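Could someone model magnesium ion with this protein?
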Amino acid sequence: MTKDIERVLLSQEEIAAKVAEIGAQISRDYEGKDPIIVSILRGSFIFMADLVRAITIPCTVDFMSVSSYGSGTSSSGEVRIVKDFEGSVEGRHLIIVEDILDSGRTLNYLMKTLKTRGAASIALCTFLDKPDRRVVPVEVAYKGFTVPDSFIVGYGLDYDQKYRNLPYVGVLKPSIYGE
Ligand code: IMP
Ligand code: MG
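Reply:
Sure, complex below.
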């Protein structure tokens, strides 16, 4: 796998420090609120697993799956809820955990949909943000790192379902996706 990586963008150590910081911040902000932390599958599963272990207050975890990208490298604009989360959100505080914010289409759509369900509050926590690619606006409450407009893999992020298990974040060699 390593031979397909052009350069390492974020080391395991940098990621761990940032996740600890966000976990501490969420713990302070949601003290006494018992938030529901919803991971958007599959890209955020590793970030989610580390993040919830950095949160020191009681919380509920849940999972949701949406389809947007297919196997290519750019967003289709089409968003579909493939797997919804389980519990009722009526009066609860939701924190949506995403791997990367790119065009913003997925999250823009999802946040709109979730706002109709009667939650007390909804906040977005994204591991990475690629602001150069934004097409629709999305409000972010917690952000790990801002990244350049390159195709990024590792720490949960894939190209064609591969590289999710890399423990760091790297830029994929353009030759891999045929550019
Ligand atoms: P958006 O709707 O364009 O914001 O797309 C967000 C989704 O696209 C993310 O949840 C990822 O699954 C995927 N994505 C966007 N950029 C990258 C990238 O650089 N590497 C891997 N997946 C990406
Ligand atoms: Mg994703």
